[in-house]
Amino acid sequence: MEPQAVVASTKRRWTWLGTLPLALASGAALAHPGHEVGHVGFVAGLGHPWLGLDHLLAMAAIGLWSLKQAPRLRVATPLLMVLGMVAGAGLSLFGVAVPGVEYVIALSVLLVGILLATYARVPASVGAILVIAFMMFHGYAHGSEMPMGSSLLAYIAGFTVSTLVITMLARHLGTWLMQREQRVLRVIGGLIAACGAFFAFS
């Protein structure tokens, strides 16, 4: 197959995978127009990570950065992200006050972008703490924005699915790039860090 055809095929695959969660969400919303609160909660949770650029960039950056880490941390990263998200959402939903959430979310985008741009490797234990801590703030924001009347479990299930999809898409893309031109990952990290700086200081 010609290189152009391979690239085109790959782009189509990523586009399809990237839009799948939103397509499922819209399909569920149309199939169940408010008849069941559970569906409302799941769809809201499913769509939330895709609609906030800060959430999307942080999850993608962590997924990409994890590819350069020790095998234990690399394998555990998706689970650690979900753990942090659920813990943060739980703090929010139980009324625990956490100041400066939006600012810390912006800083997390900045810091993870820098980690990716510099190919920084950290001990697995330190990396696990960083991933959980960063994602707790994102999860807190998700929990605070849960629509009224939504099913808690359905909402958490929705954003858990999207978190995993975003992370795994980023990791697959990163693996593909590493086989061709690793410096692109540094550029992506720099761009993500720049976005984080804009979010934090604008």
Quote the distance from N terminus to C terminus. 46 Å
Q: Tell me the number of helical segments per DSSP (H or I, 4 or more residues long).
A: 8
What structural class do you assign from the helix and strand content?
Answer: mainly alpha
The unreliable regions are: 1-38
What is the percentage of strand-forming residues?
under 5%
Radius of gyration: 17 Å
CA-based shape: globular
Binned, the helix content reads: over 70%
Write down how many β-strands occur, each being a DSSP E stretch of 2 or more residues: 0
Give the SSE string. HHHHHHHH
Q: What is the mean pLDDT?
A: 83
**Biggest sheet layout:** none
Structure description:
This protein is an all-alpha fold. It has 8 helices and no strands. It has helices at 3-31, 37-51, 53-66, 71-93, 101-117, 124-144, 152-178, 183-201. α1 packs antiparallel against α7 and α4 runs antiparallel to α7 (152-178). The longest helix has 29 residues, at 3-31. It is globular. The N and C termini lie far apart (46 Å).
